[in-house]
Amino acid sequence: xxxxEAPEDGKNQPGDTPPAASVCASETLxxxxxxxxxxxxARARRQGTSSMMVQARKxxxxxxxxxxxxxxxxxxxxxxxxxxxxxRRLREAARAVLPEKGQDGWDYxxxxxxxxxxxxxxxxxxxxxxxxxxxxHAARK
Length: 141
What we know:
CATH topology: Ribosomal Protein S5, domain 2
Radius of gyration: 16 Å
CATH architecture: 2-Layer Sandwich
Oligomer: single chain
Structural class: alpha/beta
Helix content: 25-40%
Strand content: 15-25%
Shape: globular
């Protein structure tokens, strides 16, 4: 599958600009930006997988609409290049899985793991996220 900014004929023409990044973004996902939002999610439910940690919390009524998601990787993941690669892969996994498996009114924070998130096969990364969401939303006893 070619990225949306790739020209149909495979040749770049002078003056051709790629579309804005929002072309790939889902309308149902909003990105968490404030530290307080990340901290609120950290105090709620969490589920670890081999490639990531997922923190999730149900927001209070009227707090915000839709599904919100944040991404983070500590310095344990590696240098800036490794952290950014891991976050890019988590963003793509979230775009693919959260609109179908995430629940409206929830915040999710995806945390990358050292040496695993960036190198795990993409299909396995998606399966890990689906598994974590299933566990987080399972009825608590």
